[in-house]
Amino acid sequence: MIRQARSSLGYSQYAVANELVRVSGNDALTREEVARWERGKRIPGPYWRKWISTVLELSLGEVEMAARFARAARWSCEVTRTASMRR
Questions:
Q1: What region, left, alpha or beta, does residue 18 occupy, with left being phi > 0 and alpha being psi -120 to 50 degrees?
Q2: Which of 1, 20, 54, 80 is most buried, by the most CB atoms less than 10 A from its CB?
Q3: What is the rounded CA–CA span in Å between residue 54 and residue 76?
Q4: The pLDDT of residue 85 is above 90
Q5: CB-neighbour burial class of residue 39 (10 A; exposed 0-12, middle 13-18, buried 19+)
Q6: Per-residue CA distances from 16 to 11, 37, 43, 59 (Å)
Q7: What is residue 3's DSSP assignment?
Q8: What was the pLDDT predicted at 77?
Q9: Rounded to an integer, what distance in angstroms lies between the CA atom of residue 73 and that of residue 21?
Q10: Amino acid 74: pLDDT
């Protein structure tokens, strides 16, 4: 969802990271973290979800739902992988 929203606004990952740093006042975010979110390697925490909704012009509800969906998908993959390893 982040990649799609970012692309529709014409932002690069660098631009999103810079804008998140600017609006949040927290300079701990990098383009690499934005890339991890987009690839599903990490799920943004509640702190960043609030700012993501602002920067990417999404409702907080949409961002929260996407995070829940990503977490459920990740959990499902973990359960499947663990089950196949036991066979």
A1: alpha
A2: 20
A3: 29
A4: no
A5: exposed
A6: 6, 12, 16, 16
A7: H
A8: 62
A9: 28
A10: 75
Tell me the DSSP string of 10-76. Answer: T--HHHHHHHHHHHH--TT--HHHHHHHHHTSS---HHHHHHHHHHTT--HHHHHHHHHHHHHHHHH
Distance CA 77, CA 27 (A): 32
Instruction: Convert the pLDDT of each residue in 28-79 to its tens digit.
Output: 999 999 999 999 899 999 999 999 999 999 999 999 999 999 888 877 665 5
pTM score, two decimals?
0.81
Q: Nearest 5 degrees, angle CA 7-CA 66-CA 50?
A: 80
Looking at residues 7-14, what average pLDDT do you find?
Answer: 97
The single residue listed with the structure tokens 């982040």 is: 2
C-alpha separations of 31 from 2, 53, 64, 79 in Å = 13, 17, 21, 30
